[in-house]
Design goal:
The structure holds 2 protein chains of 2 kinds. Chain A is mainly alpha-helical. In chain A, 75% of the residues lie in helices and 4% in strands. Chain A is built from 12 helices and 3 strands; from the N terminus they run H-H-H-H-H-E-E-E-H-H-H-H-H-H-H. The radius of gyration of chain A is 25 Å and the shape is elongated. The two termini of chain A are 34 Å apart. By secondary structure, chain B is mostly helical. Chain B has 2 domains: 61 residues, Winged helix-like DNA-binding domain superfamily/Winged helix DNA-binding domain (Arc Repressor Mutant, subunit A); 48 residues, no CATH class. Chain B contains 6 helices and 3 strands; from the N terminus they run αααββααβα. In chain B, strand 1 and strand 2 form a beta hairpin. In chain B, helix 1 packs across helix 3 and helix 2 crosses helix 3. Chain B starts with 6 loop residues before the first helix and ends with a helix. Chains A and B meet through helix 5, strand 1, strand 2, strand 3 and helix 6 of A and helix 1, helix 2, helix 4, helix 5 and strand 3 of B.
C-alpha cells in the first residue's frame, strides 16, 4: 500500500495549494509550491516506476534473467501484473507528455531570451507604441521590461514607479523558473496541475508586494486597477472570469497588511512531502526484500 | 522612498513616453511625482541624451526632452506581434494584469467601490 501513498499525498498537496497561495507570504508560498511540486512529482514518478517494476518482476522472462522466483512474487501480490501494466502505460504516456511540455517550455524561454537580447542596450525599459494597456517582463540576460504607451499614459508618476518595480521583481526573482518548475511537475503528475495557477497568482502577489516596498500600497492598487481597465485587446472568453477575480484578489490583498508567516502552514505541506518521500523509500525497501526472498526461493529450486 | 538601482532612468523615460509633449527637467520632476531633486533628473536626462534614448530642443532657458523611437521601439513592435500571435508567451512574459472584458471591468469596479464602502 505504501507504493500508492506518494500519489495520494501529492494529490493532497495540490488540493492545499490554492489555500497556501492565499494565506502565506507570496515569496514563501512560491518557493513552497514550486519546490514542493518538484518533490511531489519525483515521489509520484518513483512510485509509478516501482508499481511497473513490481508487475514486470513476475514475468517469466525477467524472473529467469534476474534469477528469482516469479511464483513467489505472484503468491505475495496476485494483483501486481494488471497494476504493473497500467503503471507502465501511465509511465510511458507521462514521459511523452513531459518531453512535449518540456520542449515547448524550452522553446518559449529561448524565444524570450532572443527577444530580450534583440532589444538594444538603452536600459531595461522597452516602450511599445500601442493604445492597449499592457506590461510584461521578458526574462533574458539581461531581462527587459516592456510597457505600452497606452498604459504609461493612463498612470501617474507613482503608479508608473509601482508598475516598473512590479516587472523588475519578476525579473530579479526569476519568476519564470518557478512557473517552469510547476509546469514540469504537472507534466509528470497531472494531479499537480492546480499548482500552475496557484504559483502564477503567488508570483504576481510577490511582485505586487515588492512594488509596495517602493511606494504606498494604495498606489500599487491604483496602478493595478488602471491597468486592468480601459482599452484592451480581446482575449479568449474562458480566461476572462478568472482574470477579473485574479485582479480583484490582488487589489484586495493590497488593501490588507502584508501576510504574516505562519509555521504550521509551511509545516503541514512540508510534512506531506516528507511523508511522500519516506513512503517511496519504504516501498523501495519492501520491493528489495521481496526480490531477495524470491531469489532465495529460486536458488532453493535450482538445488 | 527607496528606489531600485538603474530604476530612475526607466522612470524618467516612462514619464517622457507618457507625456504628449516635450518636457523640461522641471516638468519631468513633476511628472515623476515631485520627490526627486531637479539636478538628479537633469543628470539622468543628459545621460539618456548621450545614449541617444531622448532628443532635446531649446525651450526658453532649458532644454525640452522627447523620447526617441529607436531600434528598441522597433524590436518592441516585433514583440507586440509575437504577443498577438498567442501561445505560451503568457507564461514567459508576465502580464501586469490579465485582459478584462467590459463585464469584468464592471464587476471589478463594483468590488472596489464595495470595499471602499466597508471602510
Amino acid at each position: 500500500m505504501t507504493t500508492y501513498l506518494p500519489l495520494l499525498l501529492s494529490a493532497l498537496f495540490a488540493l492545499a495549494a490554492p489555500a497556501l497561495a492565499r494565506r502565506l507570504p507570496p515569496h514563501v508560498a512560491t518557493w513552497l509550491l514550486s519546490g514542493g511540486g518538484l518533490v511531489a512529482a519525483a515521489a509520484s514518478s518513483a512510485s509509478l516506476a516501482l508499481l511497473a517494476f513490481d508487475g514486470f518482476a513476475q514475468a517469466p522472462l525477467l524472473a529467469s534473467r534476474g534469477q528469482w522466483s516469479g511464483s513467489v512474487l505472484r503468491h505475495h501480490d496476485p494483483s501486481a501484473v494488471p497494476v504493473g501494466i497500467a503503471a507502465t502505460v501511465a509511465v510511458c504516456v507521462l514521459a511523452l507528455r513531459f518531453l512535449r511540455i518540456a520542449g515547448r517550455r524550452l522553446a518559449a524561454l529561448l524565444g524570450a531570451h532572443r527577444l530580450a537580447a534583440a532589444l538594444p542596450a538603452t536600459g531595461e525599459l522597452a516602450v511599445l507604441r500601442s493604445p492597449d494597456r499592457q506590461a510584461f517582463a521578458v526574462p533574458g540576460r539581461p531581462g527587459r521590461i516592456a510597457v505600452t504607451t497606452g498604459l504609461l499614459r493612463g498612470l501617474d508618476g507613482g503608479q508608473r514607479r509601482a508598475l516598473l518595480e512590479h516587472e523588475r521583481s519578476h525579473l530579479r526573482h526569476r519568476h519564470h523558473l518557478h512557473h517552469t518548475a510547476c509546469q514540469l511537475a504537472a507534466a509528470v503528475n497531472p494531479l499537480l496541475c492546480r499548482l500552475i495557477p496557484a504559483v502564477e497568482q503567488t508570483t504576481e502577489r510577490w511582485a505586487d508586494e515588492d512594488a509596495a516596498s517602493v511606494c504606498p500600497r494604495g498606489t500599487v492598487a491604483g496602478a493595478l486597477s488602471r491597468a486592468a481597465t480601459g482599452n484592451r485587446p480581446a482575449a479568449p472568453a474562458t480566461v476572462l472570469a478568472a482574470a477579473a477575480a485574479d485582479v480583484a484578489d490582488r487589489i484586495g490583498a493590497l488593501g490588507d497588511p502584508a501576510p504574516r508567516l505562519t509555521w504550521w502552514r509551511i509545516g503541514l505541506p512540508a510534512g506531506l512531502l516528507l511523508a511522500a518521500a519516506l513512503a517511496v523509500a519504504v516501498a523501495m525497501r519492501d520491493t528489495e526484500q521481496l526480490i531477495e526472498l524470491a531469489e532465495r526461493a529460486y536458488l532453493a529450486g535450482q538445488r | 522612498m527607496r528606489r531600485a538601482k538603474g530604476g530612475l532612468e526607466s522612470e524618467v523615460l516612462a514619464a517622457l513616453w507618457a507625456a504628449e509633449t516635450a518636457l523640461t527637467p522641471a516638468e519631468v520632476v513633476d511628472a515623476i511625482g515631485g520627490d526627486l531633486a531637479y539636478t538628479t533628473v537633469q543628470t539622468i536626462l543628459v545621460r539618456l541624451h548621450a545614449k541617444g534614448a531622448v532628443a532635446r530642443e531649446q525651450s526658453g532657458r532649458a532644454y525640452a526632452y522627447t523620447p526617441v523611437l529607436d531600434d528598441a521601439g522597433l524590436a518592441a513592435d516585433r514583440m507586440q506581434a509575437l504577443l498577438d500571435k498567442g501561445g505560451d508567451h503568457v507564461a514567459v512574459l508576465r502580464q501586469f494584469v490579465n485582459t478584462l472584458s467590459p463585464e469584468d471591468e464592471t464587476a471589478l469596479a463594483d468590488l472596489l467601490t464595495r470595499r471602499q464602502d466597508h471602510r
